Amino acid sequence: GAAGSGKSEWILQRIKNDLRREEKKKIILLVPEQATFRFEYELSVDEAIGGILSVQVLSFQRLAWQILQKVGGGSKVVISPVGKLMILRKELAALGDELFFLKKAANRPGYMQLLSQSIAEFKRYRLSPEALFGVLEEQLAERSLLSEKLREITTVYDGYCRRFGAESIDHDDMLTLLLEKIPFDDDLKDTVIFIDEFNHFLPQELAIIGALMKKCSGMTIALTLSTAHEHEFLQRRVFRQAVQTLEALKGLALKENVMIEEDILLDHAYRWREAPALEFLANHYFAAAADGFKG
Q: What integer best gives the mean pLDDT of the chain?
């Protein structure tokens, strides 16, 4: 449904109804880190369900910690962002004259943070040093400014990964480790999962959702999409990212042989019930032409 159509309220009501029918039913509500407190509060203040002991409101990182604590891997030492920068600087110093572009830029203010962010992006998009070296060999065989810079960054990335022992990981490795451990968490077999407040998912997160689909007893995902499918402009341009996410999720379900239930479309903008001017703006913001608001 569109923004304000009641997707979050629908999920919360569904969770409450499930708990009324089966008090000890295992439920996970997966939301972004910044939304966890709001959803926990919404559930905990409802006297009708008498608490949320069987409901866990988690982000991807919190889910990782929880599963790793149960099935193993939670004892690994997580390197802090400062420690990550120190390891990167040590790797740059060790490579020395093998680097040309990075050696010159390493002492510029903020450059190490940018390099750290680049490595984090590689991990979130599931790009290993081996995969990047493969791209360099196959598609960027000719020497160019781009290929040489990417080669140096990949060399640093490869050395950075090799410096981690078996007992240490960085923050971005948590979800990779979670992906490996999900098949061993038998508690997920009886768990229903709801996912809300996401507009899109990174490849690392999509892989985790695919693994959860295969393991859990049911999954519901809310996405912000126009329900007016006849408006091709809205689907292709305004909601393009959400449409691509929906297609990726359905592709994952087919790949994992998970049954896909019929879509639930919410087409009433409850958020604007007491603000007709905002409702008019929301409905006509992308319209090529519209009559003026009368109110």
A: 86
Residue 230: per-residue pLDDT: 44
CA dihedral of 247, 250, 252, 255, whole degrees rounded to 10: -120
Segment 204-228, tens digit of pLDDT: 999 999 999 999 999 999 998 876 5
Give me the DSSP letters along 18-87: HHHH-TT-EEEEE--GGGHHHHHHHHHT-TTTT--TTEEEE-HHHHHHHHHHHHS-TTSEEEPHHHHHHH
| List of residues 6+ apart from 142 with CB closer than 8 A | none
Would you say 216 and 37 are in contact if contact means Cβ atoms under 8 Å apart?
no
* Contact criterion met (CB below 8 Å) for 25 and 14: no
In one-letter notation, the amino acid at residue 68 is L
Helices (H), the chain: 7-21, 36-44, 60-71, 81-95, 101-105, 111-124, 129-138, 145-162, 173-181, 203-215, 232-233, 240-255, 276-284
Measured from the Cβ of residue 287, the count of other Cβ atoms closer than 10 Å reads 11
Q: Measured between alpha carbons, how far is 135 from 50 in angstroms, rounded to an integer? A: 55
In this prediction, residues 245-249 reach a mean pLDDT of 91
Judge contact between 71 and 188, C-beta under 8 A.
no
Of the two residues 233 and 71, the one the predictor is more confident about is 71
Those residues whose C-beta lies under 8 Å from the C-beta of residue 98, and which sit 6 or more positions away, are 155
pLDDT one-digit tens code per residue, 99-128: 988 888 888 889 999 999 999 999 999 999
